[in-house]
UniProtKB/TrEMBL annotation, chain A:
SUPFAM superfamilies according to UniProt: MetI-like (SSF161098)
A cellular-component GO term for this protein: plasma membrane
Transmembrane annotation, as ranges: 12-35, 81-99, 111-131, 143-163, 184-206, 260-277
All copies of domain ABC transmembrane type-1, residue ranges: 74-276
Name of the protein: ABC transporter permease
Topological relation to the membrane, as annotated: Multi-pass membrane protein
Family affiliation: Belongs to the binding-protein-dependent transport system permease family.
Record keyword Transport present: yes
Family matches, as InterPro entries: MetI-like, MetI-like_sf
Subcellular location: Cell membrane
Organism: Paenibacillus donghaensis
Superkingdom of origin organism: Bacteria
GO biological process: transmembrane transport
The keyword Manganese appears for this protein: no
UniProtKB/TrEMBL annotation, chain B:
Organism the protein comes from: Paenibacillus donghaensis
Domain ABC transmembrane type-1: 93-308
Gene3D superfamilies in the cross-refs: MetI-like (1.10.3720.10)
Protein name: Protein lplB
Pfam families (UniProt xref): BPD_transp_1
Membrane-protein topology: Multi-pass membrane protein
Length: 292, 321
């Protein structure tokens, strides 16, 4: 029994220590930023904050939540995440069902499959896409954030694989009872595939919440910025010109503790859905990655 | 990526053919419903994926927005020649290859080793806690992490303070020096993704037949020998798959990450094709030239993906489509 040997016991102690350190390193930056956000302004500016708040105060959060621009961006993000996820899931579910059929039942299946998969391999790139959005007059609209990304080929493939696992007998029984494809999809496939749909919805939500680049290039008016784009502008680019009109606004968003509070609010929804996400996703990913 | 054709046509061929003309007609009619279900996705894909592909023509034009595709002058391969004859632009391509290459190697080794270590943990609660913590950064965006890293890596930031206090080091200008910048880009990428990358290796480990380990024990193999002769060989196929598939990303050095960390001081070593494309295309408005750059990237990427998929099939018998 190898695990009773002395050298293996030593290894186990070292291994546990190392893994603990590694996982601490993974969350230290998040703990630090949380500590800064709860600290007093002077302590934060003097770099006295490590992993625990110094001069505990909620001032930074009060200032953040009093900032009109921040709240408006937050609202844009909430809207795009809600609408975008619903739209994307609707399109993906409707497409995954026919693609999950065997070729015998749906002759054009392979043509459609390649039609979609090709877009994963090759694309027109940023500039033609940008010109297209301009020509469609989608600049500065919510639509540009939710429509072009609605067809997620990746999610489609994951879901069609899940649909393939639905017992064929159920489907045949439904057909004999006179149900059509739509009815079968909604009454049989969807209830059975709820875990898969929940996982993909959560992925889609996280994607929308984190997405910032489309906001940056397609919203020429900062009032339409989603939260991620707003944060990118003031925290990463440090460009306050667009979002701070009055001097007191500038003071209120450039302060270190306020930035930390904004970052924390920006990731809070992810931290909230993460526990639910984590339960499901290992299966989802593995399904897509490893073959039997 | 999952296989699209799990059910082969030989199985379906065994099914009885539609018996009568009426049945056949009924079957065709049912298929139309399936077509209709695909319609929204097809329309959106044509508009937002295929029409931009047609827009690639401006790579061969001196494109002027007010003239449009039809009126702008055709200039052939001039943009491409310009890209490959300007030293700064060639440097951008090199930067992309170097950063992407370093990320690929580090991004393969780290999860591999981590999975091996995690595999030795026998206490499930501990294992799950570690996994929960290391997967987390994957779900946060580079805007959030960029914001945090900019703060922590500044001259007065937490990391320089720590290095100063423990080793008495002078503050390092991490994000202002090209070499340090590359180091930070690769390290922070590994930091963000190694946990998540572990999942496929853990799945492969779970698939190893326990009887093999029992047999090895009976033969008196130490844990190290078991790892060397059993565990590692069992991981080789999935490692080849992950490695070759990442080849398809050879020109993707990570736009989100670099864009959120870099600044003008490190353009010489940190500017990659995607960030360069954004600056000259969207900011400077050189639509024709940056489309040519994007097209070059797309084509090379396409070739690499096809080669990588074939390699993965040859080396590890892994089929995607």
């Amino acid at each position: 029994m190898y695990y009773k040997s002395k050298s293996y016991k030593t290894f186990t102690i070292l291994n546990y220590t190392f893994l603990t350190l590694l996982s601490i390193i993974c969350i230290i930056p998040l703990v630090h930023i949380l500590a800064v956000s709860f600290s007093g302004k002077s302590a934060a500016n003097a770099n006295l904050v490590g992993l625990l708040p110094v001069q505990f105060t909620l001032e930074a959060y009060a200032k953040t939540l009093a900032n009109e621009n921040f709240l408006r961006s937050l609202w844009v993000s909430v809207q795009r995440t809600g609408l975008g996820t619903v739209l994307s899931m609707a399109v993906v579910i409707l497409a995954a069902y026919p693609l999950s059929k065997e070729k015998y039942h749906f002759r054009r299946r392979n043509i459609y499959t390649w039609f979609f998969v090709f877009t994963m391999l090759f694309s027109g790139g940023l500039i033609p896409f940008y010109i297209l959005v301009q020509k469609l007059h989608m600049m500065n609209t919510m639509w540009v954030l939710i429509i072009p990304g609605a067809v997620s080929v990746w999610n489609m493939i994951l879901l069609l694989n899940f649909f393939r696992g639905v017992p064929k007998d159920l489907e045949e029984a439904a057909f004999i009872d006179g149900a059509g494809h739509l009815r079968t999809l909604f009454s049989i496939y969807l209830p059975i595939s709820l875990p898969a749909i929940a996982t993909l919805s959560l992925f889609s939500m996280v994607g929308h919440w984190n997405s910032w680049f489309d906001g940056l290039i397609f919203m020429t008016d900062h009032k339409n910025y989603p939260l991620a784009t707003f944060l990118q502008t003031i925290i990463v680019q440090q460009d306050f010109s667009k979002v701070a009109v009055r001097p007191e606004d500038l003071e209120n968003i450039s302060q270190r503790t306020v930035k930390a509070a904004q970052i924390f609010i920006g990731m809070a929804p992810i931290l909230l859905v993460y526990p639910f996400l984590q339960r499901f996703f290992v299966k989802g990913i593995v399904l897509g990655a490893v073959k039997e | 990526m999952p296989k699209l054709d799990r059910v082969t046509d030989t199985q379906t061929a065994a099914l009885p053919a539609a018996k009568s003309r009426a049945e056949l007609k009924d079957k065709r009619r049912r298929e139309l419903v399936l077509d209709a279900m695909l319609l929204p996705a097809v329309i959106l894909t044509i508009i937002f994926a295929y029409i931009p592909m047609a827009g690639l023509v401006i790579a061969f034009q001196d494109y002027k927005p007010w003239l449009g595709f039809s009126e702008s002058n055709w200039i052939g391969f001039e943009h491409f020649q310009y890209l490959f004859s300007t030293p700064e632009y060639v440097q951008v391509i090199w930067n992309t290859l170097i950063i992407a290459g370093m990320k690929m190697v580090a991004g393969l080794i780290a999860p591999f080793l981590f999975a091996l270590l995690l595999n030795e943990v026998r206490r499930n609660s501990f294992k799950r806690t570690i996994q929960t913590l290391v997967y987390l950064p994957h779900f946060l965006s580079w805007v959030i992490l960029g914001g945090i890293l900019l703060d922590m890596l500044s001259n007065e930031g937490m990391i320089n303070q720590f290095l100063g206090a423990v080793f008495g080091m002078e503050p390092i200008f991490f994000l202002g020096d090209g070499n340090w910048f590359r180091f930070i880009v690769v390290t922070s990428d590994v930091w963000k993704e190694f946990g998540f990358g572990t999942i496929v290796f853990l799945a492969a480990l779970a698939g190893i037949n326990p009887a093999l380990y029992e047999a090895a024990e009976v033969d008196g193999a130490s844990r190290w020998k078991q790892t060397w002769y059993l565990t590692i060989p069992a991981l080789i196929p999935i490692t080849i798959v992950v490695g070759t598939l990442s080849l398809g990303n050879i020109l993707n050095a990570g736009f989100d990450q670099i864009f959120n960390l870099y600044n003008a001081l490190v353009y010489d070593k940190g500017d990659i094709i995607d960030t360069f494309l954004y600056r000259i295309g969207i900011i400077d408005g050189k639509f024709g030239f940056s489309t040519a750059v994007g097209m070059f990237k797309s084509l090379v990427g396409f070739v690499f993906i096809v080669v990588a998929y074939r390699l993965a099939y040859k080396l590890a018998n892994y089929r995607i489509f």
